[in-house]
Amino acid sequence: MVDKIHRDQGRFRDIVRGKIRDNLRKYLSNGDLIGRKGKQLVSIPLPQLDIPHFRYGDNGRGGVGQGDGEIGRPIARGEGESGPGPAGAEPGEHLLEVDITLDELAALLGESLGLPQIEPKGKNRLERQKTKYSTVRRVGPESLRHFKRTYVAALRRQLVDGTYQPDAPCVLPIRDDRRYRSWRSTPEPDANALIIYMMDVSGSMGDEQKAVVRTCAFWIDTWLRSKYRGVERRFIIHDAAAKVVDETTFFQTRESGGTRISSAYHVAAGLLDGPFPHEDWNIYCFQFSDGDNWGEDSKEALRLLDQSLLPRCNLFCYGQVESPYGSGEFLRALDARFPAGADNLVTTEIEGKEGICDAIREFLGTGR
Amino acid sequence: MIAPTCRDLPKELVEIQSTMQHWARHYGLDFFPTLFELVDSEQLSAIAAYGGFPTRYPHWRFGMEFERLAKGYAYGLQKIYELVINNDPCYAYLLDSNSLADHKLVMAHVYGHCDFFKNNEWFRRTNRHMIDEMANHGNRIRRYMDRFGVETVESYIDACLSIEDLIDLHAPFVGRTTDRPDRYAFPEATAPDEPPRRAARFPAKEYMEPFINPLDRTESAVRKPEVEDGRPRVPEEPHRDVLGFVLEHAPLKPWQVDVMSMVRDEAYYFAPQGQTKIMNEGWATYWHSTIMTRHGLDARDVVCYADHCSGALASSPARLNPYKLGVELFRDIEDRWDHGRFGPDYDACDDLRERRHWNTRAGLGRQKIFEVRRIHNDLTFIDEFLTLEFCERHRLFSFGFNPSSGMYEIESRRFDEIKRRLLFNLTNLGRPIIYVKDGNFRNRGELYLEHRYGGAELHQGYAEDTLRNLHRLWSRPVHIETIRQDKKWVVSFDGQKLESSN
Question: Could you tell me if A158 and A109 lie in one domain?
């Protein structure tokens, strides 16, 4: 019987996966999912998954409730239905939110873009602590209080000191009786990856270009996180000078200065020299730019890339986002410097939103 | 049956069962033999997803439901305590991770349900061997899947399920038509000299005659069916059982007819459970609390019992808990009939003090609630027994949707408003009332449905998608007439595009 239900569940999952796969290109290019991501789950709105019936709209679905409250007090949110617009313009309006794990989403991404598996560089020296709630302690936050254990402790205490009266059974826990759920931690070996995002934030990178970068980064994260257990990310922005920033700043900063790509490489190389030695970490670098660079700088940048970054990275990707102002010069310089292409260097041009899909396939198709 | 899950109950549970059964009998409950099965949470979620029938046909929506239930259990958001199915013998499932106190509670509760299934009038026409029937349905549908493909059969079932709620809840009590006439046999224009049909007349005393056989009723029945272009209408009168009408008249293949009739049988089987949710849960809760507090509880069970019982009876503002409402109403009825707070004398009394202390020592409470559980369904139950005093005591309110804020807001604490709202929600299981008005619309075999507007509009998105599914079954254009913003609208789907017109 449990087998049977798993078959039905399988059918359901297939339908969900099918719907997501059908729409994946859409999700890939319009960044819809970025706001819907939790720690492990993405919630995806799917059209028409449930079985439609004739039913009342919001205006017919009031009811009767119980409790206090003035007239006019809001008690729940409506599901929001747009008014009777021109019929037939939209497909059925009802959506069902389906949660799928990031791993599943990554698997779908892999399936539909034909991405190869990644072989981690077999570094298991790092450990991480895994926690599990499996024990009870005397201290802890109230939200984790174990009601039954607390009660039993209080009851036992009262029985022992004789304050419990069977005729008037009243059990009052005191501070000492409180019990809280708690955790134990065990170390586990871990394969770790570092993703370094670099972006040119000089004036020529507009909002549209940044949206493209953001969407790319979301999918790269999704894919790599499904392959490594611990993923760290570092964000580097640069104009003429570079610095490490947090994710929000990364996507919001806009500067007006000139452009020196080498400055970003310097900072990235600094990370690898310092907190993230490449012996322990699988290193992934993604650089996004419109291709402009200050004339003299390219030589220095390429030298750094060749000597301090490429030898230490699993993968170095350069995505050139098409921009009305960018010259695209750096891509040419890169291709000229590595005419045969290095094993772990991928360069591509991203032509707006529609190009995201292909760029991701290029980047992650190397299986590194 | 259900060989893989069937386990003999452990000895202590058998003892509890016989105790509970003894007390249930002692209070006059009358039930089918009841078989308990001990299952783990995954099995219980699976059985619940199948609506209680492990032998049910395969369909993805059971998988969806299973995933929801299993996830809810895994995250500690919800837990299914009891699951009992209306069958002779009754099957009930116990969750193996529950404590003994829980098992006692659940068993006492289950006997309440079993008594209700057996004795409530609305269940009288349900199939008491549904477990076997469901297994047969499962086999037949699996065979069709083997033959025509899972995809084909499943998506056809989807379409059938879209209109599974368009049935006539009262049909089981007036006899249903099961013959299937030829789909092309639209009646010819009637010969003018055909003798007029006689309307049914019920025997009545003379002074009751106008009430029992009202003139307009008998006349309209005698009158010839409405004629348009010289052809009679199909159906003659608007037909409530849309699913049955489609089954009889749509151009379906034999396997499709079979599948749809199974869907329809199951819809009729489950309907009384929807119609008596408040009563059924209230009745079972009444009995588990009576039996447990008077006989079943050991000292060590009290905390656990009180905790879980209050959990089951908790209500949130936006959702009236049927367990709570039901049990409180039954207790209220018992109390009123014990004190004689009913009948013309009590109704006529408008001295509040006197009403409050009214006591004729009638002692009819128990007897009354047994009578109520026999003849009522939720709609008549609320209509008959929800009183002003009850509403005030339990701080009931009605709420509605406020389009300007997009929120549900408390609308009123007036008794008549609350009752109206509650009755509306219970009428036709809270779903729109829809009739087949014409099965040969425009003389082109199109299906014309009519929504009987009662103040609430149809949800547009759902209505459109339902029409699409209905079109797959009917194969000709389908229409539904409804009211939108106080105007008549007809939404149509012809297989290509949707159209709304007014």
Answer: no
